[in-house]
């Protein structure tokens, strides 16, 4: 469905490169919700842009490739590689960017945001018919039709986020990428957004990739997930495995940092800060913060170790 083969991406800045994504390798399967977790600044959003083919200077891909396997109207298989994926936007892959307020045009009514975004990609040329289709879709998602007449600032943050999801899924794409879709929303509204994403996925049987720094979000809706640290994907496994049998020390610390209901003991945060991506350390990038770091960790980069076909982690302790 969507495959990343050893993808590296970097920002070309005046004084060198910021290596935001380093040899990331995983795939998103059909009919699943895949989560990408990690602290802020670990490269999650950049990775999503790479998957969406949203490569604009100063961002560039320096290694590997991204593939999307889809099919055309007649059912013939089609493969899009990075550099071509943008040709499949909205219909095959769509993107819900972070920050529902600033990605919308503040002076356009929601109806026109739909028209502007979709008209180029939609076969329906009659505006009235298209408007009816949009209305039907909003109804399907239990969104009030009045929102079409509203300007973004007249709607709540949660409603704007729902509209972005509606927009991104209107043409029934195979893959939907969502960047921090619940951040900055209160818990009740968050829950509603997650439920909406799950319902859409269930109905369309497509794949959703959700980026969130919040492990609770992943626990609630993802089927499989990847943990990123300092630009690298350090563990990938079914979500249940990540929570019940994490293998990388960083994943273990992320899980231990989650507050649990009924447990009032203070939770351990993860001491220290991630390394600079301009000059990442040799060896394991987590070594400076890892309670198990050994000499080898500071000189040799750990390779992927497979616990099963579905579960890998990169740590010298696993060899
Ligand atoms: Fe810790 Fe070493 Fe494993 Fe890195 S490779 S996570 S430093 S034990
Ligand atoms: Mg981000």
Automatic annotation (TrEMBL):
One of its GO terms (molecular function) is ATP binding. The keyword ATP-binding applies. PROSITE patterns: ABC_TRANSPORTER_1 (PS00211), ABC_TRANSPORTER_2 (PS50893). InterPro entries: AAA+_ATPase (IPR003593), ABC_transporter-like_ATP-bd (IPR003439), ABC_transporter-like_CS (IPR017871), Oligopep_ABC_C (IPR013563), P-loop_NTPase (IPR027417). Keywords: ATP-binding, Nucleotide-binding, Transport. Residues 2-255 form the ABC transporter domain. It comes from the Bacteria. One of its GO terms (biological process) is peptide transport. Gene3D superfamilies: P-loop containing nucleotide triphosphate hydrolases. The keyword Nucleotide-binding applies. Pfam families: ABC_tran, oligo_HPY. PANTHER family: MALTOSE ABC TRANSPORTER, ATP-BINDING PROTEIN, OLIGOPEPTIDE/DIPEPTIDE ABC TRANSPORTER, ATPASE SUBUNIT. Belongs to the ABC transporter superfamily. This is ABC transporter ATP-binding protein. It comes from Lederbergia citri.
């Amino acid at each position: 469905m969507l495959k990343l083969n050893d993808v590296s991406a970097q920002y070309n800045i005046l004084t060198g490169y910021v290596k935001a994504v380093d040899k990331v390798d995983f795939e998103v399967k059909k009919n699943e919700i895949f989560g990408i977790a990690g602290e802020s600044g670990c490269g999650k959003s950049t990775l999503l842009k790479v998957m969406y083919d949203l490569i604009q200077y100063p961002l560039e891909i320096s290694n590997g490739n991204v593939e999307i396997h889809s099919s055309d109207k007649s059912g013939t298989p089609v493969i899009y590689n990075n550099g071509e994926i943008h040709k499949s936007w909205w219909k095959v892959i769509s993107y819900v960017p972070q920050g529902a307020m600033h990605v919308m045009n503040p002076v356009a009514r929601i109806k026109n945001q739909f028209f502007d975004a979709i008209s180029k990609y939609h076969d329906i040329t009659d505006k009235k018919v298209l408007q009816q289709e949009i209305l039907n879709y909003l109804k399907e998602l239990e969104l009030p039709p009045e929102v079409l007449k509203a300007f973004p600032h007249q709607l709540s943050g949660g409603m704007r986020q729902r509209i972005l999801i509606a927009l991104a899924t209107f043409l029934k794409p195979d893959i939907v990428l969502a960047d921090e879709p619940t951040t900055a929303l209160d818990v009740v509204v968050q829950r509603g957004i997650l439920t909406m994403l799950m319902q859409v996925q269930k109905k369309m049987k497509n794949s959703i990739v959700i980026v969130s720094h919040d492990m609770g979000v992943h626990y609630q809706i993802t089927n499989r997930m990847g943990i990123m640290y300092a630009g690298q994907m350090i563990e990938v496994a079914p979500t249940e495995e990540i929570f019940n049998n994490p293998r990388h020390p960083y994943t273990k610390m992320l899980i231990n940092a989650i507050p649990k209901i009924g447990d009032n003991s203070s939770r351990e945060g993860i001491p220290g800060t991630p390394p600079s991506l301009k000059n990442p350390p040799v060896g394991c990038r987590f070594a400076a913060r890892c309670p198990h770091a050994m000499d080898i960790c500071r000189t040799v980069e750990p390779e992927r170790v497979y616990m099963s076909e579905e579960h890998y982690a990169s740590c010298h302790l696993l060899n």
